[in-house]
Write a structure and sequence with these properties.
By secondary structure, the chain is of the alpha/beta class. It has 25 helices and 21 strands. The chain folds into 4 domains: 103 residues, no CATH class; 108 residues, PAS domain (Beta-Lactamase, 2-Layer Sandwich), CATH 3.30.450.20; 160 residues, Reverse transcriptase/Diguanylate cyclase domain (Alpha-Beta Plaits, 2-Layer Sandwich), CATH 3.30.70; 251 residues, Alpha-Beta Barrel (TIM Barrel). α10 packs antiparallel against α11.
C-alpha cells in the first residue's frame, strides 16, 4: 500500500509541476530565480500537503491556501479540473486509506511490518491483541523487549534471508508466548520492496493454528499409536523397521524381528469381556516392554499380537535370551479384577539379513516362525528356517480343505471302549474325531485339531460332535445297547464359547437321552484359564446330570487348588505316564501317586494308552479304576463299536473277559 501511495504522490507532483511551469514560461517578464522559486514551492508544498492528507495529519491553513491558490492561479481552467472536483478526488483518496485501515485492522490474521533495523513499524489490531501490547507501544519497540532473545535471533536470521533473496518464506511454524499462554503460529514473510526496488523491510502474516495443531497431534497419535496399550502401532513399527534396516545394511549390522502372540487370550476376552481383555493387554504390554533395552521397539500389531525390533544383535543367543525372559515373566499367573488368569506367549524370530532384507519379508517370516512355536506346544520361541515356508504352504492348503470339510461330510466319529479294571465290564466309550479327506486320506486329530483351534473351526466342529454323539447314543439304545456312556472332548475354544451349556443340553433333549450318558472331558489348560468361569459352567452341567472328567492330568499345571475347587467326577491319567509303567520302574511311583491323589479327592481314575498286560496288572495293583487302550481295542466305527460291546457282554457273561 505504501508503494501505491508514493507513486500516486510522485505522479501528482510531476503533472501539476509540468502544467505550472508550462504556463509560467509562456508569460512575459519571467526571471530564472522566479522559475526556481516557483518549482521549489510547488514541489515542497504539494508533497507536504499530499503526504499529510494520506496519513490524516492536519495541514497548516497557510500551506493549504498557498497550494490551492498557486495551482489555480497558474493553471488555466481548460487544463485543470474545477476546484470542487479536486476536493472530491482528495475525499475519495482519503476514503481509500480509511478503507485500507479498516481491512488491515479487521483481518483475522496477525499482520506486521518490520524495517531493516528489525523494529516493528506497523502492526494490525489482531497482532497487538495476540501479543498483549497496544499497537502504539509495539511500533518502534525493539523485538528484544517483546520476545525471548533466542527467538529474536531466529527472527532476524529469517528476515535477513527474506530481504537478501527478495523471496518469500512460507509456512514457518513455531510457538510464541502470548497473554493467552503458548500459542502455535504459522507465518508467511514477504519482502517489502520500496520505490527504489530495494527490499527495505519484511511484511509478515501469522495465523494461530494452536487448535488445529492440537487436533493434528491427536490425529497423529491415533494414526501411529495403539489406543489401548499406548504402544506404537503397525504403521509406526514398519516405519521404524524400515529405518533400522537401512541403518543395519549401511553399517553391516544384524537386527531381529520378534513376532509374539498371546496364547489363550481369546478365552479371557470371551469370558470376562473386552474391558478386562484390554486391561490384560495393557499388563502384557508393560511386561513385554520391561524385557527390552531402551533402544529397542515394541508395538502392538493388532488383537493379541505384538512385534519387537531388537537392534544390533551379535548372536542369535542374544534374541534367545530376550525370548526366555519374556516366556518366564509371562508364565506367571495374571491377577485382574480379583481373577487369576494364565496366558503364555508364543514367539517367532526372523533375523536381518539372513531371513529377509526388507520389512515385509522379515515380518512374514517372523510370523511363520511364531506359528511354528504354537504348533510345537505354545509358550516357546522358534527361529525362522526355510522349511517353515514349505510347512506354511501345506498349512494354508490344509486350512482351505478344513473350511469345506464339514459341509462335505468328511468328518467321522470313532469310539474307543473303556473297561472297568475290576469288573471287566464296558463302562463307556470315548468319541474320537477323524477326517477322511478325498485326496489326503484318513487324518488323525493331531494333524488338524491344532489348526481347527487356531482358525476357530473347532467351534462348529465341536457342536457337530456333541450332536452326532447324542444321535448315536439314541441309535444304540434303539438297537438294544443301553447305558453306554460316551465321553466327548471339549476344546479350550469351544469351552469358552457362549451358549455351550444350551447347545449340550438341547442336543440331549432333542434325542431324548439321559444326561448321565454324556461325559465331557476338558484339559487342565482349559480348566485353569479362568477358574471362576470354569467353576460356574462345570457346576451347571454337573447339576444337570453330566459326568465331568479332567483330561490329560499331569501334563499341564497340576494344581491341587483347582482340583479342589472344580466339580470333576473323574480324571484321566495321560498316556505319557502309562507308557513308562513296568516292573521296578521309577515312573511307577508317579502313576501310583496320581491314582492315590484322585481317590483322596473322591475322583475315579481312567488310564489311557494301556497297551500291555504288564501295564494293566500294575495299574490294577495301584488301584486304578478304568483303562482304555489297544490292549482291549483300537478306535472303532459306530457299527464296529456295537459289535464289540455285544461280543464283550457275551464274554463277560461267560467269564472269558478276564482272560486277556
Amino acid at each position: 500500500t505504501g508503494n501505491i501511495y508514493s507513486i500516486i504522490i510522485q505522479m501528482t507532483i510531476t503533472l501539476l509541476t509540468a502544467y505550472a511551469v508550462d504556463i509560467f514560461l509562456s508569460r512575459k517578464h519571467k526571471k530564472p530565480d522566479e522559475i526556481m522559486l516557483l518549482l521549489s514551492g510547488i514541489i515542497l508544498t504539494l508533497e507536504k500537503f499530499l503526504y499529510a492528507m494520506l496519513i490524516d495529519e492536519p495541514v497548516a491553513d497557510y500551506d493549504r491556501y498557498i497550494i490551492f491558490n498557486l495551482i489555480f492561479i497558474l493553471l488555466p481552467g481548460e487544463i485543470l479540473i474545477k476546484r470542487n472536483k479536486v476536493y472530491k478526488a482528495v475525499k475519495k483518496f482519503k476514503f481509500s486509506k480509511r478503507l485500507f485501515e479498516i481491512i488491515f485492522n479487521s483481518a483475522p490474521v496477525m499482520i506486521f511490518y518490520k524495517n531493516k533495523e528489525n523494529m516493528l513499524t506497523k502492526v494490525n489490531s489482531n497482532c497487538a491483541e495476540e501479543i498483549g501490547i497496544p499497537a502504539q507501544k509495539l511500533v518502534g519497540m525493539p523485538l528484544e523487549g517483546i520476545f525471548p532473545s533466542d527467538d529474536v535471533q531466529m527472527y532476524k536470521r529469517e528476515d535477513s534471508i527474506v530481504m537478501e533473496t527478495g523471496k518469500s518464506m512460507k509456512n514457518i511454524v513455531r510457538s510464541i508466548r502470548t497473554k493467552n499462554g503458548v500459542r502455535w503460529l504459522k507465518t508467511d514473510k514477504v519482502p517489502y520492496i520500496d520505490e527504489d526496488g530495494v527490499a527495505s523491510g519484511v511484511i509478515g502474516f501469522s495465523v494461530d493454528i494452536t487448535e488445529r495443531r492440537d487436533l493434528g497431534d491427536k490425529v497423529n497419535y491415533m494414526a501411529y499409536y495403539d489406543l489401548v496399550t499406548g504402544l506404537p502401532n503397525r504403521a509406526l513399527f514398519k516405519d521404524r523397521l524400515s529405518v533400522a534396516i537401512t541403518h543395519a545394511r549401511r553399517n553391516k549390522l544384524k537386527i531381529a524381528v520378534m513376532f509374539l502372540d498371546v496364547d489363550n487370550f481369546k478365552s479371557i476376552n470371551d469370558t470376562k469381556g473386552h474391558a478386562v481383555g484390554d486391561k490384560f493387554l495393557c499388563n502384557i504390554a508393560k511386561t513385554l516392554e520391561s524385557c527390552l533395552r531402551e533402544e529397542d521397539t515394541i508395538a502392538r500389531f493388532g488383537g493379541d499380537e505384538f512385534v519387537m525390533l531388537i537392534h544390533n544383535i551379535k548372536d542369535p543367543s542374544d534374541v534367545q535370551n530376550v525370548a526366555a525372559r519374556i516366556n518366564s515373566r509371562c508364565r506367571q499367573p495374571w491377577i485382574l479384577d480379583d481373577g487369576k488368569f494364565y496366558a503364555t506367549i508364543s514367539i517367532g524370530v526372523a533375523i536381518f539379513p539372513k531371513d529377509g532384507e526388507d520389512t515385509e519379508t522379515l515380518l512374514k517370516n517372523a510370523d511363520a516362525a511364531m506359528y511354528r512355536a504354537k504348533e510345537a506346544g505354545k509358550d516357546n520361541c522358534e527361529f525362522y528356517t526355510k522349511s517353515i515356508n514349505t510347512d506354511l504352504i501345506k498349512k494354508l492348503e490344509l486350512e482351505e480343505y478344513l473350511r469345506h470339510a464339514m459341509e462335505s461330510n468328511q468328518f467321522l466319529l470313532y469310539y474307543q471302549p473303556q473297561i472297568n479294571i475290576n469288573t471287566m465290564r464296558v463302562i463307556g466309550l470315548e468319541a474320537l474325531l477323524r477326517w477322511e479327506h478325498p485326496r489326503l486320506g484318513m487324518l488323525a486329530p493331531g494333524e488338524f485339531i491344532p489348526l481347527a483351534e487356531e482358525t476357530g473351526f473347532i467351534v462348529p466342529i465341536g457342536v457337530w460332535i456333541v450332536q452326532a454323539v447324542c444321535r448315536q447314543i439314541r441309535k444304540w439304545e434303539d438297537e438294544g445297547i443301553p447305558d453306554l456312556t460316551v465321553a466327548v472332548n471339549i476344546s479350550a475354544r469351544q469351552f469358552q464359547q457362549s451358549g455351550l451349556m444350551e447347545i449340550i443340553l438341547d442336543s440331549i433333549k432333542r434325542e431324548s437321552i439321559s444326561t448321565k450318558l454324556l461325559e465331557l472331558e476338558i484339559t487342565e489348560s482349559t480348566a485353569i484359564q479362568n477358574i471362576e468361569y470354569t467353576q460356574k459352567i462345570l457346576k451347571y452341567l454337573n447339576d444337570a446330570g453330566l459326568h465331568i472328567t479332567l483330561d490329560d492330568f499331569g501334563t499341564g499345571y497340576s494344581s491341587l487348588n483347582y482340583l479342589r475347587q472344580l466339580p470333576f467326577n473323574a480324571l484321566k491319567m495321560d498316556k505319557s505316564f502309562v507308557g513308562g509303567i513296568k516292573y521296578k520302574s521309577r515312573e511307577n511311583g508317579i502313576a501310583e501317586a496320581i491314582i492315590s491323589l484322585a481317590h483322596n479327592l473322591n475322583l475315579d481314575v481312567t488310564a489311557e494308552g494301556v497297551e500291555t498286560k504288564e501295564q494293566l496288572y500294575l495299574l490294577k495293583s495301584f488301584g486304578c479304576d478304568n483303562v482304555q487302550g489297544y490292549i482291549f481295542s483300537k478306535p472303532l466305527t459306530s457299527y464296529e463299536t456295537a459289535n464289540f460291546v455285544r461280543n464283550w457282554q457275551n464274554k463277560y457273561k461267560q467269564g472269558a473277559a478276564y482272560n486277556i
